[in-house]
Specification:
Layout lengths: L1 H23 L1 H17 L3 E2 L2 E5 L4 E10 L8 E12 L8 E10 L2 E7 L2 E2 H14 L3 H4 L10 E10 L1 E7 L5 E5 L2 E6 L8 H22 L8 H17 L2
Parallel strand pairs: 5-8, 6-9
Antiparallel strand pairs: 1-3, 2-3, 3-4, 4-5, 4-6, 6-7, 8-11, 9-10
Helix pairs in contact: 3-5, 5-6
């Protein structure tokens, strides 16, 4: 009987050690996931400096998230997020649907660059739409074991103090303030939304607001007015036409 008790104690201790190790490495695991699946969905580079997760408190932060530009655009990045804070339900991290109470992105910089093929943001959004409709979308929504990845619910998504850098290829840009972007109840139903679907919804809102802001500010942007004005109508029309 003493041997049995001893074995149980050893198992419990090992379980606690493994749990602590899992919590310690959860941030780096999320970082690897972002840098693995991000490029598969957007077809551009996605890099993260660091991710910290506290399952006990349900808080997380993402620092230095950079989304690259598609091929053919001179600016190295399309979106630069210095810091994003997340509040989530830690008990859903291993469930079929991860519940995220809120995501707040403050002071990101978005580059709206116009090239011969249109804008960089519309190109990235087109890539995401293609990913969502392709047979590989189901593979993008699987974990390392080949099992279906968890869907996601985001109750509150907020971007504040964003700035848009407007440029045409080979020409420097000018920063324009972007109104806040606020989305609620994403994936609120029982199933939730896949990573690809969440990305498409959020990026569509960002691109739409960016185009409207740049269009309304075109008169203040020197040296790019004529090019921006001629391109924005087609970009916004194509975006709304794809919905």
């Amino acid at each position: 009987m003493k041997i049995l008790y001893g074995a149980i104690i050893v198992i419990v201790v090992l379980f606690i050690i493994v749990s602590i190790i899992g919590i310690f490495y959860l941030g780096p695991i999320v970082k690897v996931g972002i840098e693995r699946f991000g490029p598969q969905i957007t077809k551009v580079s996605v890099l993260v400096d660091s991710v910290s997760v506290s399952p006990l408190s349900g808080s997380a932060s993402v620092k230095g998230l950079v989304v690259g530009n598609p091929t053919g655009y001179s600016n190295p990045q399309a979106i630069n997020i210095t810091n994003a804070t997340v509040s989530l339900d830690p008990y859903t991290l291993t469930s079929n649907k991860i519940l995220i109470h809120s995501i707040h992105i403050d002071s990101p910089e978005i580059t709206y660059q116009i090239g011969l093929g249109g804008s960089n943001l519309n190109k990235i959004l087109s890539n995401v739409n293609s990913s969502a409709q392709s047979p590989q979308a189901s593979q993008n929504n699987t974990n390392n074991n080949g099992k279906p990845a968890s869907n996601i619910e985001i109750d509150d998504f907020l971007i504040t103090n964003a700035k848009v850098r407007v440029a045409i290829s080979g020409v420097g840009g000018q920063l324009v303030p972007l109104p806040q972007i606020h989305l609620t109840n994403l994936g609120k139903d029982n199933k939730g939304l896949s990573t690809v679907e969440i990305t498409r919804v959020i990026l569509t809102a960002v691109v739409t607001q960016t185009i409207k802001t740049v269009a309304s500010s075109a008169g203040t942007i020197k040296n790019t007015v004529s090019t921006i004005t001629s391109t924005l109508g087609n970009s916004l029309g194509n975006l709304l036409g794809n919905k």
